[in-house]
Amino acid sequence: MAYVDGFIVPVPKKKLKTYLAMAKKSGKVWKDHGAIEFHEAVADDVSMGKWTSFPRSVKQKPGETVVFAWIVYKSRAHRDAVLKKVMKDPRLAEMMKTKNIPFDGKRMIYGGFKVAVGM
Question: CB-hemisphere CA count at 13 Å for 93?
Fold first, then answer.
């Protein structure tokens, strides 16, 4: 079965357009190096939960929204191979040099997951 990298990112609403442009470029890099799918979804029906929620998970601040993103690979080994190439890609390196990265990476949550059920 497939392998997925998942991300939850707080993004200031005033920088969302810039973030999505960066995500589109990043997605091209990942796809060029073999990722099967690349998705970025902006919160639409996400409320602040009493105990847990997407906003709480990233310590969402006023004026921010939450982006849920995922990348699909064939396997963990495939993910590792793609990621190695992605991290050496000058297009991504150029984007990450920018001091105006449109999100707070310290509050980003991410991890790799084995797909257990897929339909």
Answer: 7
